């Protein structure tokens, strides 16, 4: 009888140890996927400073164009073409950013699918919290990326407008308002993305601790922000008068041409 009890006790202990081992094994396997996912965001991280630099230079160009007014078309054309090149560079970097983060999220999902296999409630609960933060982070990024795609198209159109001799102040103002609304949404999404990134990094660290893992970990990167990406400001009265003078001169030239044709 004593032997049977001892055998049952050993069997129970073995079962507990086996379950614990399985839980640790799952957490360790998740750790591999989680850290690999961070590694795959390296390209995303590499794009941050070049993007900020391009955005800030673009803003400088816009301010230069605004200070010139529509009368200085030669200088405006040169600046607008430089800005268009920056738009193309930003578009390329944003796509590299997107591919990097999407690949990282797909790798993360390999870890997320294993959460239900964790036996210990506390460890599983912490893992679920970590997954929630990552899902929110990626959702915020998708919204931010969609906004960037819209902004790129609007910026491209903006600098094309500056090359149009018939551009009016009203048309420019309406387009600038649309550009600024788009960038404001991007700023909001970026703030959400960075906040979720911080929450995810904290939750991942807490998951490792709860699972009893003594492992190396790398934090997921956030998104850098240019100091000023809005295209605010208005043309000075002098520049508006220059624009009006151009229109009047064009009309006078057209009238003179019509008179010559009639003669």
Automatic annotation (TrEMBL):
InterPro entries: Lipoprot_YkyA-like, YkyA-like_sf. Residues 213-263 are annotated as: Disordered. The keyword Endoplasmic reticulum does not apply. Transmembrane segments: none annotated. Pfam families: YkyA (PF10368). Residues 1-27 form the signal peptide. The keyword Oxidoreductase does not apply. Residues 73-128 form a coiled coil. It comes from the Bacteria. Residues 213-225, 234-263 have a biased composition (Acidic residues). Keywords: Coiled coil, Lipoprotein, Signal. This is Putative cell-wall binding lipoprotein. The lineage of its organism: Bacteria, Bacillati, Bacillota, Bacilli, Bacillales.
């Amino acid at each position: 009888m004593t032997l049977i009890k001892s055998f049952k006790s050993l069997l129970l202990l073995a079962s507990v140890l086996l379950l614990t081992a399985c839980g640790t094994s799952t957490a360790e396997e998740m750790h591999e996927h989680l850290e690999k996912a961070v590694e795959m965001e390296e390209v995303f991280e590499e794009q941050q400073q070049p993007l900020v630099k391009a955005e800030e230079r673009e803003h400088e160009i816009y301010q230069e164009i605004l200070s010139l007014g529509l009368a200085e078309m030669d200088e405006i054309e040169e600046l607008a073409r430089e800005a268009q090149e920056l738009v193309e560079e930003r578009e390329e970097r944003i796509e590299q950013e997107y591919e990097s983060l999407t690949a990282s999220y797909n790798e993360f999902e390999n870890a997320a699918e294993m959460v239900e296999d964790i036996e210990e409630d506390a460890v599983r609960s912490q893992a679920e919290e970590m997954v929630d933060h990552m899902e929110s982070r990626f959702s915020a990024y998708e919204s931010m990326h969609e906004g960037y795609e819209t902004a790129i198209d609007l910026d491209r159109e903006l600098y094309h407008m500056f090359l149009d001799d018939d551009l009016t102040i009203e048309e420019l103002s309406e387009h600038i308002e649309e550009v600024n609304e788009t960038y404001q949404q991007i700023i909001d999404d970026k703030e959400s993305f960075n906040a979720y990134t911080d929450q995810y990094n904290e939750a991942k660290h807490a998951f490792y601790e709860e699972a009893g893992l003594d492992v190396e970990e790398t934090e997921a990167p956030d998104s850098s922000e240019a100091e000023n990406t809005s295209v605010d400001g208005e043309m000075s009265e002098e520049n508006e008068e220059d624009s009006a003078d151009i229109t009047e001169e064009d009309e006078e030239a057209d009238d003179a041409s019509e008179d010559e044709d009639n003669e």
